[in-house]
């Protein structure tokens, strides 16, 4: 599997460079995403602009990681899906569970907005607990 990681202040961008994401890549991709999710910054933007085809197991893996990241108060955003990837995703229930944007720039915006939202919710929780 070929990929590139670009680390920003609030998130990492994982660009998958293979044209075909087949189910045999699930273990390696799973380990890579887990590793990124455990190191700072923990938010992840997954750029799929080079990918032309993906199998159901890959979509399922991404949907699972979407849930894991959100359970850990971090962001997981997929961006730059080709029309073929989007059409394949539309045939499944996984698309509804994923955070998708058309461009990497929009994915960055989503991560930053979610970070602000989490900070505001944390400050509200702290304010509420001090009033009790």
What does this structure look like?
- By secondary structure, the chain is an alpha/beta fold.
- It has a single domain (3-131), classed as STAS domain (Transcription Regulator spoIIAA, 2-Layer Sandwich).
- Helix content is 49%, strand content 20%.
- The protein is built from 4 helices and 7 strands, in the order βββαββαβαβα.
- The strands form 2 sheets. It has a 5-stranded mixed sheet with strand order 1-2-4-6-7, sandwiched between helices. The chain has a two-stranded parallel ribbon with strand order 3-5.
- A hairpin with a 3-residue loop joins strand 1 and strand 2 (11-16).
- Helix 1 runs parallel beside helix 2 (56-71).
- The longest helix has 28 residues, at 104-131.
- The chain is globular and about 40 Å long.
- The chain starts with a strand and ends with a helix.
- 27% of the residues are buried.
- The model has no long low-confidence stretch (mean pLDDT 92).
β-strand number: 7
Please identify the top-level CATH class: Alpha Beta
Determine the CATH topology: Transcription Regulator spoIIAA
Percent helix range? 40-55%
Which oligomeric state applies? single chain
Low-confidence stretches: none
Class by alpha and beta content? alpha/beta
> Which homologous superfamily in CATH is the superfamily?
STAS domain
- Write the CATH architecture name: 2-Layer Sandwich
Count of discrete structural domains: 1
Helix segment tally: 4
Average pLDDT, to the nearest integer? Answer: 92
Order of helices and strands: EEEHEEHEHEH
Biggest sheet: strand arrangement: 1-2-4-6-7
Strand-residue proportion:
15-25%
In angstroms, what separates the terminal alpha carbons? 52 Å
Main sheet specs: 5 strands, mixed
Alpha carbon gyration radius: 16 Å
């Amino acid at each position: 599997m070929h990929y590139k990681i670009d680390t920003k202040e609030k998130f990492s961008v994982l660009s998958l460079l293979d044209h075909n994401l087949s189910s045999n890549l699930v273990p390696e991709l799973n380990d890579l995403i887990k590793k990124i999710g455990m190191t700072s910054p923990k938010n992840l933007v997954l750029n799929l602009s080079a990918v032309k085809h993906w199998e159901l197991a890959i979509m399922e893996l991404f949907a699972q990681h979407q849930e894991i990241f959100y359970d850990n108060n971090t962001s997981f955003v997929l961006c730059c899906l080709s029309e073929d990837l989007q059409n394949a995703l539309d045939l499944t229930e996984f698309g509804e569970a994923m955070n998708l944007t058309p461009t990497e720039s929009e994915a960055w915006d989503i991560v930053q907005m979610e970070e602000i939202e989490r900070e505001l919710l944390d400050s509200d929780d702290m304010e509420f607990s001090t009033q009790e």
